[in-house]
Amino acid sequence: MRIFRNSCVVMGLALLVVLSLVAGCAKPAPTPPAPPTPPAPPPPTGPERGGILLTTSIGDASFLNPILSADTATGTIVGYIFEGLVTLDGDVNLKPLLAKRWESSPDELTWTFYLRDDVKWHDGIPFTSKDVKFTYESILHPTYTGPRVANFNMLLGAKAYLAEIAAINKQFSDKAISEEEHKAKTLEAYQNWLKLEAIQTPDAHTVVFRLAEPFAPFLFNSVSLGIIPWHILKDHQGVAMRDHAFSRKPVGTGPFKFKEWKSGEHVAVVANFNYWGKVPYVDELVMQIIPDMNTIGVALEAGRVDHGSLVPEEFARFDAMKHVQTFEFPAFSYTYMGFNLTNPLFKDKLVRHAISHAINKEAMVNEIFQGHAVPAWTHGSPVRWDYNPNVKQFPYDVAKAKQLLAEAGWKPGPDGILVKDGKRFEFVLQTNLGNKQREAAAVVIQSNLEEVGIKVDVQLVEWSTFVNAVLLGKNFDVCIVGWALGADPDAFSIWHSKGGGFNFVSFFNERVDRILEQGRVVGDLNQRKALYQEMQAILAEEQPYVFLFYPNTLVGINARVEAPFKGSPAHSSGILWNAEHWWIPEKYQKGPILTP
Amino acid sequence: MTKYLARRLLQAVPLLLGITMITFLVVHLAPGGPAQVMISPDASPADIARIERALGLDRPIHVQYVMWMGRMLRGDFGRSFNDGQLVTTKIAERLPNTLMLTLVSFTVALALAIPIGIVSAVRQYSALDKVSTVVALIGVSLPAFWFGLMLMLLFSVQLRWLPSHGLSTYGSGFILGDRIKHLILPVTVLAYGGNLAAYMRYTRSSMLEVIRQDYVRTARSKGVAERVVIYKHALKNALIPLITMFGLSLPGFFSGALITENLFAIPGIGRLALQSVFTRDYNVIMAINLMVATLVVVGNLLADILYAVVDPRIRYD
Lengths: 596, 317
Description:
By secondary structure, chain A is an alpha+beta fold.
């Protein structure tokens, strides 16, 4: 899961690591008459090798090192260069990658992975179990600066070790120990943890993980992380890895090799002809960094790039173009309006139900997204295996909303605004500045709620301030934000009343807490599915959020590109996840770009 | 003059020091920081605390400031928190792009603005004066993002004459013709929407003032050709206010043109600066801020010196 935001006005925000930038402006773009378009290319005969595929990204990459970064732009490139032990296919199912197969002990505390023996790093050195051990151990180094600790803190002894590090850090901030002592102590603690051998390598192609507790998302979230080479980085763990030139000139095992990265301009990768698996068809893939969604549209229309995200208003226009193929698929993210449940206004469930009935989601989908979105009713994604389609829904019904508010004791005052015990029903609705779709949703909600006698003030806040001061600081009445979900349904940090660092709304439900705890431990997929479906039903009934909509991902691709999708690729890393299978017919390969 | 220069330079030191202090304080007080930017729903406050410890961001602000100052004086501006690149490398990579864009558009703007300004002044209230005034006002009023987008739609999408974005065609290396093609649209936006109108109007008003001076009348009355009067006697004096303008424009050449850089996907300083503010990339913000502040000081000083060079009546003692 990721905190999810859309933005177009503000560039470079994609560098806010982890925050996926998907779609953009709702600015009405001018619609000039369609340019003269020659006929579309004839049907292909079969995959052909060669050509340069020009993709686009709104944000630049950060660290081209899978353990140091989690943002979308970097993730796309890192996914071509590096490989994890397992991966996900287009339907979000697990698939072996660097591991041929794996098994777990009956108690799910020991996981054994059998690695491929035909894999070489891009510099020719063979890939072994040493690399795997090194990669995942580096994540627990005391000065590690990346965002992946939570995926590995269930390793044997890791939690105790991390607590020890936190204690040593505290001693330092209390000035009880010097900088040198601090460094020595933390490194010693790390060495002691390494001695526990939570990750063992019985031979060059076998890795054994020993966990302190069962962790169901282990396959999806932990060992899917890309492996980095021990032979290059072995003396550079922690902060030294962050400062190492490797992140700007990475060496991996994947289907593409790194070529060049010009900051703010492009990142280029080339086909790895020594790849152990299927060699990519295109010679080169270049991700151009274009921070403005309008410019991406222009470049795609002008035939200057092969791929670009589209804004909903433009989709129909691009759909009509002969030289652009359009794709629409459900995304793994949803937008919601969250109530601060510590605010007395929202403590009453009837009131939350009433507000849900008062909000017209259909109108938002049609007017803000021109129909390119799906109304949401609970937490989760309709295209993920754990989704519960039978939860309680709160359709748009003004009369019902008014009736529920009256039942809750709210009576219209002299100016039409509801009053209860002398208190008027008014609150501030906050969302992040620059996200046109959320800004528009806020305005719709404002007018919807005015109809039932609730006064809403809308406030727009700069993103970083919004996240840190408003959300994490819990300084809000009601907020509009979104979640980008991962392949695993674990939502502990969002809904758990204690461990949930992202439970901004202060939701507390005994049963949901238990489900989230069990969901991490139970290995059986069907059992987990049942648990999470129950949670989704409770969340729909409790309405801690008004779940608003799932914006569809809209993409345009130049007609020269043959992109083998089956239906709707529901993949959290977007449409480019399998670019190694894309190809360009030979007659369209001349020149860096072609307009059919 | 030397004494004056020395005094001005000495005055600049506390000024710059104050600017760095205020900037440092403000950026650190803004909610969030580099560690929070890496925020993921799985990160705990302990994770953030550990990253802050590793990066030295857990120290009190004044300690961090003194450390930053110490490193800065040794020429070490640190690394970007976003991607680990040295801040100096990051700026050096982008500065040439920004300078190319701003200087070319400035030159284009001046090359058009001064002659048009002179003609409008000499033939005040003529049709040409009125047309150029209207055209100039339209230029100033056009929002850059809209104007740029319109140019793109016309020249990249409809006519397909010019590329839509970037500074070069991928894979072609540096080719002068290709570079010029890429620069035409952004330079047009910057020159027409920015400097052109301003410099034209300044030239016009300054020229109008000068041609009413006694020495111009004297030149005319002794029978000097009108052309010589305008270009030799009047123009040189009319340019003095433009020098101030130039001095004040200097920091802008380096700080870049944010909207244009963004729209045309040109990796320049303006884009870097804004991005670093949004991602709380402290080291980058501080370096760019110090650079621009220094240029403001230098630009003002330069304008004052050039005054004395152009106008012998002005002396600094």
